[in-house]
Amino acid sequence: MQNAKDTFYVTLRNRLATLNPNRTMLLRGVQRPGILVEEAEAVVPMLPADVFVLRWTALTADVNLPLVLARLDCEILYTTGGTQPASGLDRGRALEEMDAELLSLLSPNCAPKMNYTQTPPVQLNTPVFWSAADFTPVTTLRDRLSRSARVTVFAYQEPGEL
Amino acid sequence: MSTAAVTYTTPTTPLTRRVRAYFAPVVRASETPTVFDPSVSGRFNLDAPPAPWIDLGWITNLSRKSASTINVLNVGSPAAPQVQMRELIGATVSFRFLTWRKLSMALSAGSEHMNLLAPAAGAAANGSGSKGVTAIALIAGSTATSLNIPSASLSSFSAGQMVVVDADYAGQTGYVGSGVSAAYVQSAANVNNDPDYVRRVSFNVALVSAVTSTGLTLAQPLLAGAPASNMKVQVIEGFVDREGGSFFQEWSALLVMPGEQGERILYYYPRLQPTGGAQEDTETLLAPLEWVTLNASFRALPVIDANDGEQVLCFRSFLPSPMTLI
Asked: Chain B residues with CB inside 8 Å of A152's CB?
């Protein structure tokens, strides 16, 4: 399943770098596209603003197939307080911009599955594909607006795959 | 001297999760099915069926129906049943294939199943595929998993392609196809005397895993085994079946239910012919994603049981779980 998770993240990261090169963050001293995998970073008390955070949750597997089909639920969380020049009054617009960006990042809803544990990465035989985003209502906490979108990522487990 | 006391359990209701399907060719000219002997092979490894059975994976919605009828002869006054007789024997079976491949498509559609030959440049368009690129003759020494071809032709192939391997059509009538009777030719004119016709319907297909300096390495063995010297290879793009056609596929089938306690139920149909046309079913995975499965339905045809000369349609075997009272 790790190949599917890695592929999903790298696909969205690369698409974000193209779609909005200005959405970046400084993480562990490196400037990078504004998207991260929560379980692969240090634990923080509060989600970083203006970046997409991938949180892997449920896992189910259909074993009644020639290849096991894994279904991984990914919660994509994002929060914004708007911009400083606008004193946060544009936080609604900023959230809407992230909504639209996320929709674009998820389309097309498939990508060749890669094994990123090897250098260079190796393309596997089956693709990773995912459902449409299921958005939650906005939540407001003080000056921040937050939303999440649930996406189910599907991947066949190829012989010998992790 | 004594043996250890045997512990045993009383029989329980068989519990199974799924059914696995295997098919094997019937020699059509003589109507000779592939025999499955449960006393010899009943406990076979489900991932490695005995030759020549082809694993078509897990199936769903299995439905077996008996169409046999029994009548009674009433005698006397008032009449009372004295004798029963079997008036008719009949059986049907239906299920869904979870995977699409050459054989499952052919069994689902029931009639001729065609390979889409890689089209020749400028060939006239046709619903079941146009004329193919010229076939390449094999060189001696080819096996079921490697094809020797002239070095000048190697550039026509690449890993990942699908190929069909079979002889040229040479004007014969009757069943054609290596390894499997894939179609019945009524006259050479019907098939335009096309040298590619046999390769168009043949089940002798495989995926190319590599192109070497001497030929092609196949990812799966050819169904007909090592190619004959008169066989040629052509690239195929996919498969096509049709609603219609006069040919009936006929195959031997083996359906296996592995039980949770180690028991096994096997249904062996020596001769099955399809009763329906090409139909699919869909099942929602997560809207709007839907599985597309192949519906297949068959009528069982009879064979003679060599043990007693009886005419039968299906054999149901039960191999009990270990140490269970019988």
From this structure: 286
